[in-house]
C-alpha cells in the first residue's frame, strides 16, 4: 500500500482568508474540512499564530489531500467524465450542494507521538463535498490514540482515498458504474470516542454518532 506520511506542523497553516480567524479546528463546529493535508516538507511557523508561543500546537481534526487531485482526475478522465471537477479548499460544509456532503471511509495507519502506539483503521471517516462550478473537496478525519487519547499522526492509504473520491465524483457526474464490492476490512471495530469524524458528525453516513448523541 502506498502510504503518505503527514507532517502535522504544516496542517495549521491558514491559506483561506475566511478561516484565518478560527484557530482551533478541534472546537469549531464549522471546522469540518479546514485541516490541511499538504504535509510534505513545508516549514513550520508560517501560520498566523506564529511559531513563538512555545506551546505545542493542537493537532488537526481533519486533513485535505489536494495533492492527490491529479490522481483522482486521471481516473475521472479514464471514465469519460467531463468536465473534470476541480479541487477547492476554500469551500466549507455549508456551501456544499446536493447530494453532498457525502460521508464514507478510507484506510489509514496512525501512530501516536505521545506513547508510540501504532494502529490501522479501515474506517477512517471522509467527507466528500460538491460545490458550484464543478468544484469539490474532501476531508479525512483524524483518530485519537487508544493509549493516551492524543490525536494521531496519519499515514493515508492513498489508493483508498483515490478510489473513494473518484467513485463518488463519477456517481455525481452521472457516469454509470457498478457499486464497488463491499470490502471486508481486517481491522479492529470502530471506536467512536477516538474518531474525530464521529465527534464532528461525519462518520455514520451523515447520521449522528451514537456515542456523541447519548
Ligand atoms: Zn498514545
Ligand atoms: Zn461514531
Ligand atoms: Zn468514526
UniProtKB/TrEMBL annotation:
Coiled coil: none annotated. One of its GO terms (molecular function) is zinc ion binding. It holds the Pfam family Zn_ribbon_3CxxC. InterPro entries: ZAR1/RTP1-5-like_Znf-3CxxC. Residues 16-61 are annotated as: Disordered. Residues 33-45 have a biased composition (Basic residues). The keyword Zinc applies. It comes from the Eukaryota. Residues 105-201 form the 3CxxC-type domain. Residues 21-30 have a biased composition (Low complexity). Keywords: Metal-binding, Zinc, Zinc-finger. This is Zinc-binding domain-containing protein.
Amino acid at each position: 500500500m502506498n502510504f503518505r506520511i503527514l507532517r502535522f506542523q504544516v496542517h495549521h497553516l491558514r491559506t483561506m482568508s475566511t478561516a484565518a480567524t478560527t484557530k482551533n479546528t478541534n472546537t469549531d463546529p464549522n471546522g469540518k474540512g479546514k485541516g490541511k493535508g499538504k504535509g510534505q516538507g513545508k516549514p513550520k511557523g508560517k501560520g498566523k499564530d506564529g511559531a513563538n508561543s512555545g506551546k505545542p500546537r493542537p493537532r488537526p481534526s481533519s486533513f485535505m489531500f489536494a495533492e492527490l487531485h491529479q490522481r483522482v482526475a486521471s481516473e475521472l478522465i479514464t471514465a469519460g467524465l467531463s468536465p473534470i471537477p476541480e479541487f477547492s479548499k476554500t469551500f466549507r460544509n455549508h456551501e456544499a450542494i446536493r447530494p453532498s456532503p457525502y460521508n464514507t471511509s478510507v484506510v489509514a495507519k496512525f501512530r501516536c507521538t505521545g506513547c508510540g502506539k501504532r494502529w490501522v483503521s479501515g474506517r477512517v471517516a471522509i467527507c466528500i463535498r460538491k460545490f458550484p462550478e464543478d468544484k469539490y473537496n474532501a476531508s479525512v478525519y483524524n483518530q485519537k490514540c487508544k493509549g493516551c487519547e492524543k490525536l494521531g499522526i496519519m499515514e493515508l492509504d492513498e489508493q483508498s482515498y483515490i478510489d473513494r473520491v473518484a467513485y463518488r465524483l463519477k456517481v455525481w457526474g452521472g457516469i454509470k458504474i457498478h457499486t464497488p464490492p463491499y470490502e471486508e476490512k481486517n481491522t479492529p471495530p470502530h471506536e467512536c470516542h477516538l474518531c474525530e469524524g464521529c465527534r464532528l458528525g461525519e462518520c455514520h453516513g451523515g447520521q449522528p454518532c451514537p456515542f456523541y448523541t447519548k
